[in-house]
Amino acid sequence: MAYSFEYRPYRRKFARPLITSHGIWDIREGIIIRLRDGMGRVSWGEIAPISWFGSETLEQALDFCQQLPQSITDEVIFSIPDTLPACQFGFESALGGMREGVMEGRSDGGKEGRNFLSIYTPLFSLSYSGLLPAGEAALTAWEKLWQQGYRTLKWKIAVDVTAHELEIFHKLIRVLPDSAKLRLDANGGLSYQEAQIWLENCDRINGNIQSSPTIEFIEQPLPVGELQLMLTLSRNYQTAIALDESVATLNQLVDCYEGGWRGIFIIKPGIAGSPSGLRQFCQQYQIDAVFSSVMETTIGRQAALQLATELTTKPRAVGFGINHWFTENEATWLQQLW
Hints:
Layout: E1 2-20, E2 23-36, E3 42-47, H1 58-67, E4 71-73, H2 74-78, H3 85-100, E5 128-131, H4 138-147, E6 152-156, H5 162-175, E7 181-185, H6 192-206, E8 214-219, H7 227-236, E9 240-243, H8 250-258, E10 264-267, H9 269-272, H10 275-285, E11 288-291, H11 298-311, E12 318-321, H12 330-335
Parallel strand pairs: 5-6, 5-12, 6-7, 7-8, 8-9, 9-10, 10-11
Antiparallel strand pairs: 1-2, 1-4, 2-3
């Protein structure tokens, strides 16, 4: 079947810069795509690359879209190369929405019907992890997220010297409710020795017989390519380790599984690649997966959460508590793209 194809680039400014060990991120850029079939039905997809995380660049994604004809087929979509994982996700998600009829519109405009409005209907009963700001700002920011219902929180580390961050960490542990779960995300920014220090501190907190927040896991303590050292850390400490940047794409996910990793996998569907390939892998191996956002819009987030609903095997919060990082009215903003 052939579909008419259109796309629009977008830029969204964060309410406050997101600071990670990769640097400062203050603008989210991506591409919204629209497919329309011969009956006038419309479906949407999102390409939200993060090149420093392992996907293609925005420029490569735009170049790919620019080279496509105005009419594309299923075959074109399923032949997108693995070097464009965010494009694979965006186009295949739009195609899936068309086939399932979850995003429909009439043939006379594209903004009416359910094509935008349906994506604002809550479809999932998953629990969510709220993303804290890095540094000392977390000591007060957690309260608002807690009031909003988040019981799992994530805090970025490896953005300052370890000694200072540990001071903030222990203050944070003291102010968080005992029932809280805390995730520490290093984004590959720790040395082996620093990772040991963090894990020793986490083990002491998790081993405390008195009530205290739980450190659920540390995400990606070491850089990509250090799988064997992370396997060693996972054997030597009680606190769990989750791979993130090391498994950014489906090919990396397969490589790490074949390399012996049986711990937690952080999966960002928006840059992982083909949803059908990801679905097949997760269903075959029943991995312990935590699905997470790439700071996409609701268009990409709905497709990602659909996968999370299907493929999550353990009661862990998904990493999509990110709405507070943007301030504009998303529904209005998306409508204005067309």
